[in-house]
Amino acid sequence: MAKSNSAGASTTDVEVTNVSRQGFWLFLNGRELFVSFREFPWFADASICQVTNVQRPSPNQLRWPDLDVDLSVDSLEHPERFPLFFEPNPGV
Fold first, then answer.
1. CA-to-CA distance for 88 and 75, rounded, in angstroms?
2. CA 41/CA 13 separation, integer angstroms
3. Are 16 and 26 in contact (CB under 8 A)?
4. Are 2 and 14 in contact (CB under 8 A)?
5. Distance from the Cα of residue 17 to its chain's centroid
6. CATH number of domain containing 77
7. Could you tell me the residue range of the domain that residue 53 belongs to?
8. Could you read off the pLDDT of 4-54 as tens digits, one per residue?
9. In the predicted structure, residue 69 carries a pLDDT above the cut 70
10. Which of 46, 13, 19 is nearest to 34 (CA)?
11. 88 in helix, strand or coil?
12. Which residues partner with 16 through β-bridges?
């Protein structure tokens, strides 16, 4: 985790700690959350570099600028509350 020169000031408080074939783990708020590629398909074909380039613009917002993906922390903590309707475009 990157730290600024100011005592106690963090430049980032989110970090990808591991990536597997099923998804990846985010260290956030002192705990790890699993982000499943099945539930969040935008990450399935992303490179490690793209997945690990995550920002936290606000306490409940995460952003992956390389993928143009924005997610609320709530959607990661409770994906069942945010049903995903994903249909791949067969013409692409």
1. 21
2. 24
3. yes
4. no
5. 11
6. 3.30.2020
7. 15-81
8. 333 333 435 899 999 999 999 999 989 999 999 988 999 999 999 999 999
9. yes
10. 19
11. coil
12. 26
